[in-house]
Amino acid sequence: MGDRQVADVLRDIEALLPELRERAQDVEDAREVSVDVIRALTDAGHFRLLQPSRFGGHEADPRDYYAAVRALASACGSTGWVASVVGVHPWHLALFDPRAQDDVWGENPDTLMSSAYAPMGRAIASDGGYFFSGRWSYSSGSVHADWVLVGGLVVDDAGDPIDFRTFLVPARDYTIDDVWDTVGLRGTGSNDIVIEDAFVPEYRTLSFASTVQCVGPGQDVNPAPLYRLPFSVVFSTAISAPIVGMADGTYSAFTALTAERVQTVIGGRLNSDENHVHMALAESARDIELAWMQLDSNISRLSLLAENGDRLPLSLRAKVRRDQVSATGMAVAAIDRLFDHAGGAALRRGTPMQRFWRDAHAGRAHVINDPHQALALFGRSELGHDIRDAWV
User: Fold this and answer.
1) How far, in whole angstroms, is CA 345 from its chain's centroid?
2) Is 169 helix (H, G, I), strand (E, B) or coil?
3) Residue among 326, 351, 143, 123 nearest 237 (CA)
4) Cβ neighbours of residue 243 under 8 Å, at least 6 residues apart?
5) How many other CB atoms are found less than 10 A from the CB of residue 21?
6) pLDDT at position 272
7) Residue 74's pLDDT is what?
């Protein structure tokens, strides 16, 4: 869709931020984002940013999508996280067989999906599909979804895995087990999904081998360059972007707190007059800006290659993963630095700084933010070694 419509979405999301800030503690206390906030995001068009145009979606530049996520997370970490993860699924569904897309969006283009991509399910092939069972943790925003995307291994008669696929399953075929009770991202409702011997048609599955190769049957009806980007890039950036937003929120909360905070132990001077505070602000602002520049630059470069129909080299994809985990690390470091200089006032329950601190560290624990694997992959790539990996 046109740039003007995307601009309208971003404007409407910006208008939601004051209310989201006010309701952040309510989201945490409820352990899930409220129905009316999800409806407001839906009405603003957030969940249509990466959706195919044939269903009324915007097919937006992914940088605009991540900018929306960053803004939302700067107001409420849990809301930004759910908006990011749930909002990236329309991009993934666009790669599936068109019949799967029709199943989800045919009657209601605003239908939402949650996910849990770890291959915790087991599938046995049958005529036209698979019998599928499993239990998956951490399906953020699942209470608001009518479908789920979950990972599973197809096994042979001996029980040995022969394929890794993503399965699209309707809500009638799974249950949600309310187990999400955490110290961070408490409001994401990232509960467990349980499936017991459900039949999933073949067309509602997608092999991860195809996903790694940036191909899928949905590209026949959704030819936009957006849908030729790597899953490993699009999804991993959706995990980093809200953490950068949380760093923005921490920065704003810190400056507001520090402007009025008095250091009584050093003679009643304002904390805002202290050089070490100025340095912490400078270093944190730098880290937040650099984190976003890395994400934005890499997405821009890959998008240009996709638009030109060029190959997306593995070396670049490895660099993107390197920078993605690094961006998360820099954002968390900025939050930690500011929190260290905020004093006891930031520890009070209900204050934004301690909530952002907890949310960011919880987000960093996501497997896609593990720096060890991503950095090792880049190092192997630089030395000319094989870097075949599902997350590159």
Assistant:
1) 30
2) strand
3) 326
4) 73, 327, 328, 331, 332, 360, 363, 364, 369
5) 17
6) 52
7) 98
Both tokens of 84, joined, read 């990011």
Indicate the SS3 state at residue 201.
strand
Are 145 and 47 spatial neighbours (Cβ–Cβ below 8 Å)? Answer: no
Q: Which residues contact 13 (CB under 8 A, 6 or more apart)?
A: 41, 44, 46, 68, 71, 72
Which residue positions in the chain have pLDDT lower than 50?
1-2, 264
User: Are the CB atoms for 141 and 33 separated by under 8 Å?
Assistant: yes
Whole-angstrom CA distances from 275 to 138, 248, 279, 280, 341 are 42, 21, 6, 9, 11
User: Is the pTM value of this prediction over 0.90?
Assistant: yes
Q: Which two tokens stand for residue 337?
A: 């630095």
| Domains along the sequence of the chain with CATH | 3-107 (1.10.540.10), 113-215 (2.40.110.10), 229-382 (1.20.140.10)
Query: Distance between CA 202 and CA 115 in Å, rounded?
Result: 18
Q: How many residues in total does the chain contain? A: 392
d(CA 160, CA 126): 16
Q: Reduce the DSSP state of residue 246 to 3 states and report it.
A: helix
